[in-house]
Amino acid sequence: MTQPWSPRRAEGKIAVVTAAANGIGRASAIRIARNGAAVVVAIDIAPELEEACAEIRAAGAEAVAVELDVTQEDAVRKTFSEIERRFGRIDILVNCVGGGARERSSEFYESESQTWRLVIDRSLVSAMLCTRQVVPGMRERRQGKIVNVSSTVWLSPSPKMVDYAAAKSALLGFTRALAIELAPFHVNVNVVSPGVTNTKGLDRIPPEIKAKNISEVPMKMMGEPEDIGNAISFLASDDARFITGQHLAVNGGRGFV
Question: pTM for the complete prediction?
Fold first, then answer.
């Protein structure tokens, strides 16, 4: 018999959220804490990390700040081993790290392979490295939730984002294939694709481009980090126990898959 619905369906869980200092990662970490997580390990390299941890604690969970570049394999392996040694397990992993080439972006015919590798490391390899560390324990315990954060850029591509679209679409393939591997062990793996969202990344976009992007959203608005965090926290909760290998676009109706 299934348990009745509860607003605290992450009760007692140990969660790790990457890119947790700001934006979607921060909103996700706070919401998971409100869902009853015992510990939220917030990983980032941004200076706002401690401030984010204060909000996580206010939401009801123990917060641990970890400064880590999740594109560095040896550092990821060591850090995740230390987290599991300290808390005994990792129940939830949210891979929020990503990002395009920013000032190095260009149309593909002018692009350089070093730039592609940077983008792919940030948006795909980082998730694979972190996930690789939690999968053995989740398989052994026959439970766990992994949520990857993609982007609707691959659904509605823009010029100068070929590498980013490639990396984020690859994240969907990674998610779905891993979900099939881990389904017999009752480990859920899903992916959320945010649309236009009010994060710091939008500050680097010219106002006319931002306005154009919003005009193309059927709801004629941008999302807030909390809108994405709500979807992520649901997929990371026990309410999503029979959902795996799925893609959820949180984008106001802009593009479907």
Answer: 0.92
